[in-house]
Amino acid sequence: MTRTGAATEAGVLFPATEACPAYLSRNDHRHFANPARNRWAASCQPLCEDEIFQDAHENAWRDSRPQLWGVRPGLTEVGTEGECLAKFPDPQNDFDAWHGYPISALDEGRAKEHQPEAALVARWLAAGLISDFEAARINRGRI
Amino acid sequence: MKALSLLLRGGPIEDAFVYRTQLVCWTYEHRVRVYEIADIERALEQSSPRSADLVNYALFHSGGRGSTYEQRGAWAAQGDLLESVDTTLAVEAEAVPYFEIDIGFEANALYDLHIYNDRLFLATDEGLSALDEFTVATSAVLRPRVRVKAPCYAANSGLGVIAASCGPLGLRLLLNEFGSQPGAMRTRRASEESVRAEVGHSTVVNHRTRGSAEFLAGRVEKTDGAYFLTEVRKTQVSGQGGDGVEAALAAADHAALAESIEFSFWNRSRLIVLGLGTIYSVAVKVDEFERKVGNTRHLGSYGPGLGRIVSASTAGRSIVLEGTKNLMVIHGREVVQVPTGPVVSMRTYQRSYRYQRLISAVSEGGLNLLAITSDREGDI
């Protein structure tokens, strides 16, 4: 479902609906303000971010950790460094908007932190989002 | 330098390990598939008769070991042959004879495959397990023995030891794994975190992250003519610039690299480090339980065509790089781009007698078997 975002000081806010909580496309994961943060690619604007988030929320793309995982069919790149997966940490409070950012198992010091667990990858494979080859690359920390 | 390659095209191959006279594969259907190397060579002789002898020699017969007269003749004439024959070849994976073994796989995914001392190790999201009877066809379901009950991301070996890297659950060393020494097999948790480890030169080098290196000094004992690692303890790597490999790099005027190491691996008592488009080796002198850093040496450079560095290894006298986009082989100033595209796994076989030039890499098109020839190398 396409939502309309509104610009705020922190970023573009997509309001909550019955089906989906609010999502904030944060400026610090888009612009150069904080170079240490992974950034969404120009090809994935805030609306694209929200669509990936909504899909993750609707399908409960979760593993054992307190976050949702995002992926586009065919492992389309979503990050400026070629990242193909996204992470949406559970908000600290129920009334906080969700946010997310692209991630890769190749990010320094984050090999396992930025790698989804195999059971979730198997769900993506079963759903037809990714191929056997792509699932194997995710499981081997190549994505 | 030239790349000779054979693509085992198609087929459900997810990973592969060449061992003795067989190619042992893991399939997307969670079965062990085994080819005889001789059958692969025959398939190539039938499909590419002009090129087969040279390519088969390069891939499967380092130093001429196990080669035929015709293959040795082709290798001796490679200078002329390389100009006139196709050296990028393919055979259909399903057309080469093979057998498959059902191991009753119940995990979600295989993370790594390793064979050592005739034993197959499978690293999965449920643990590390071992199987001995994988070399002969059978219709029975062969269930591997569980060796480590924690998600295991990588397995490696050396000096009679299996190193199981379990991510945030640490590095587990399986000591006396094959019962070659007095006493029981035992498992030692040698570090709190591990994504990968290498064993060699009385040392276990553990990588807590892709670029970092933690040295574990080992006690090695000789039993029946073979050497076995019996104990390890953490040790600092000391040198002129201070403790750690990073200090050694900084002291040798490579401070920027010291802070940007993307990948490192242990190779013949040297730590190979990659970052900022450059490759350096750092010598590490082994002296009982001490490790001392020696000289650093520039080995080569790589450009952006590789994508992000995923892994690296050595084959022959070359360094093989796996990037997110392609493979690359570097030998001094010579660089060969290998257009496989992204791969699932990349392996080399430096400790093998027959396969020292061999690189195996699974791409979307199938299993690539590669060898790099160089006029300067002679035969390895």
How is this fold's topology laid out?
The complex is a heterodimer of chains A (143) and B (380).
Chain A: E1 6-7, E2 11-14, E3 23-26, H1 46-59, E4 67-71, E5 85-89, E6 101-103, H2 118-126, H3 132-139
Antiparallel strand pairs in A: 1-2, 2-3, 4-5, 5-6
Helix pairs in contact in A: 2-3
Chain B: E1 2-9, E2 13-19, E3 22-27, E4 31-36, H1 37-47, H2 52-60, H3 69-76, H4 78-84, E5 88-92, E6 99-102, E7 110-116, E8 119-124, E9 127-131, E10 145-148, E11 154-158, E12 161-165, E13 171-175, E14 186-191, E15 196-200, E16 203-207, E17 214-223, E18 226-235, E19 237-239, E20 242-243, H5 245-251, H6 255-258, E21 263-267, E22 270-275, E23 278-287, E24 290-301, E25 309-315, E26 318-323, E27 327-331, E28 334-338, E29 343-348, E30 359-363, E31 366-373
Parallel strand pairs in B: 1-5, 19-24
Antiparallel strand pairs in B: 1-31, 2-3, 3-4, 4-6, 7-8, 8-9, 9-10, 11-12, 12-13, 13-14, 15-16, 16-17, 17-18, 19-20, 21-22, 22-23, 23-24, 25-26, 26-27, 27-28, 29-30, 30-31
Helix pairs in contact in B: 1-2, 2-3
